[in-house]
């Protein structure tokens, strides 16, 4: 009987882990999309960043309703509903690409992100619950690794499909042929994503009993908004807001930043770097094109994937708040280097920030849960809502890059990381009221 339950849990966990990959892939696909729509629709940086705003604003709108829905429904039904919402988002994106209407692109991204929000609220606790409680941390690391794999692959595919021949530099223009090719690439990407999500929904539907039997979840909604009365829950939400805002701002601007003449636009240096040059795939034309720069963005997210694996080992030796303080301090310094010096070296430094981002989200999340006086469910809902930083911060960065250039715009993420360093230091001095498993700490 125990062996049967163990097999059920393992099968259910494998099923749920595929969800982590899917939402990581779709989220990171926003980065090359921002660069693509800037050229396709002849937008300013601020207008192009509206794509990131539409996507991440869904977290602000949907997180608390999603928490309420998941708490009342079984996780399986919530996940299936989320996948249906994501399919709807893909269909809107296909319509937008065929009609070449930018506001429909924004609507499609919002619908996609709404489904992903419900998916995250349901799948994160489910992955932790599927199996031996003592190994819940290991299971989440494995699931998050697959999420990072998705964020690494998406910019490569997106740059290949969206950015061929697209130019966004001043005084450049896009031909009707290139515009049609880029829109066709968006269509191709979201047709495949729609088909894969549909297959995933079918797979999950066929596996619904295995998942439900392995980890039935409660339907309690007690204290859903209690986090609003907790000082540390609010502090954690501000930290998540700043972190996601910084990470997304850098990621969505990265292709445009690397493509600029002040960085890699007139340099072949990146092509001489092993693996990086191979993945970028030189087109033989001197300098780095927007498509080649878009492929390089994969290293920003790939650094986070490598950093997450290394960080999980370091966290067994170093206290979480100290590691967070070190990473945020280094990230702030690297942003300031780009602001001050820029150039070819600044491009490599900017890509390396992804490595330092790797442990920030889970560590901020766990530090907050350990110190909040509110319920875990309420705090988690508030922290997910704070992901809206990924919607608002890129708009500010886009505005600055329009007026002062891409390099100077990194002053905003630098300030975010500096505040996060202060958060980490304060967390180290604060009293822990709840241990990792969710029970109250004994003093």
TrEMBL record:
Cellular compartment(s): Cell inner membrane
UniProt cross-references to PANTHER family, sorted A to Z: L-FUCOSE-PROTON SYMPORTER, PROTEIN TSGA
Predominant localisation class: membrane
Membrane-topology annotation of the record: Multi-pass membrane protein
Pfam families: MFS_1
Residues spanning the membrane: 12-30, 50-70, 75-94, 100-119, 140-163, 183-207, 228-246, 298-315, 322-342, 348-369, 381-400, 406-427
Keyword terms of this UniProt record: Cell membrane, Membrane, Transmembrane, Transmembrane helix
UniProt protein name: MFS transporter
């Amino acid at each position: 009987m125990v062996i049967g339950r163990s097999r059920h849990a393992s099968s259910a966990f494998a099923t749920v882990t595929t969800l982590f990959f899917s939402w990581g892939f779709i989220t990171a696909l926003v980065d090359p999309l921002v660069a693509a729509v800037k050229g396709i629709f002849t937008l300013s940086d601020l207008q192009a960043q509206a794509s990131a705003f539409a996507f991440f604003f869904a977290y602000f709108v949907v997180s608390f309703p999603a928490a309420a829905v998941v708490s009342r429904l079984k996780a399986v039904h919530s996940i299936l509903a989320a996948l249906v919402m994501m399919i709807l988002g893909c269909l809107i994106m296909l319509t937008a690409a065929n009609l070449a209407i930018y506001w429909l692109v924004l609507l499609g991204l919002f619908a996609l992100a709404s489904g992903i929000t419900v998916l995250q609220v349901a799948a994160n606790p489910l992955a932790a619950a599927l199996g031996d409680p003592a190994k819940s941390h290991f299971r989440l690391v494995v699931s998050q690794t697959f999420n990072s794999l998705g964020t690494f692959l998406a910019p490569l595919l997106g740059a290949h499909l969206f950015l061929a021949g697209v130019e966004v530099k001043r005084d450049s223009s896009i031909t009707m042929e290139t515009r049609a090719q880029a829109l066709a690439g968006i269509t191709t990407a979201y047709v495949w994503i729609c088909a894969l999500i549909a297959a995933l929904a079918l797979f999950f539907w066929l596996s619904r009993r295995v998942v439900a039997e392995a980890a039935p979840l409660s339907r309690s909604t007690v204290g859903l908004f209690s986090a609003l009365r907790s000082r540390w829950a609010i502090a954690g939400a501000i930290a998540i807001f700043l972190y996601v805002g910084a990470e997304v701002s850098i990621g969505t601007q990265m292709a445009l930043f690397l493509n600029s003449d002040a960085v890699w636009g007139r340099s072949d240096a990146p092509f001489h770097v092993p693996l990086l040059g191979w993945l970028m795939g030189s087109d033989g034309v001197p300098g780095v094109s927007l498509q080649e720069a878009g492929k390089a963005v994969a290293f920003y997210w790939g650094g986070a994937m490598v950093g997450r694996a290394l960080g999980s080992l370091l966290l067994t030796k170093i206290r979480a708040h100290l590691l967070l303080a070190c990473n945020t301090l280094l990230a702030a310094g690297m942003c300031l280097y780009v602001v001050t010096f820029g150039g070819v070296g600044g491009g490599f430094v900017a890509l390396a920030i992804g490595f330092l981002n790797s442990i920030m989200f889970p560590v901020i999340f766990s530090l907050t849960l350990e110190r909040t006086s509110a319920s875990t469910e309420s705090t988690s809902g508030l922290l997910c809502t704070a992901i809206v930083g990924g919607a608002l911060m890129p708009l500010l960065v886009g505005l600055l890059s329009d007026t002062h250039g891409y390099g100077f715009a990194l002053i905003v993420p630098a300030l975010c990381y500096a505040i996060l360093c202060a958060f980490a230091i304060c967390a180290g001095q604060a009293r822990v009221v709840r241990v990792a498993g969710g029970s109250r700490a004994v003093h």
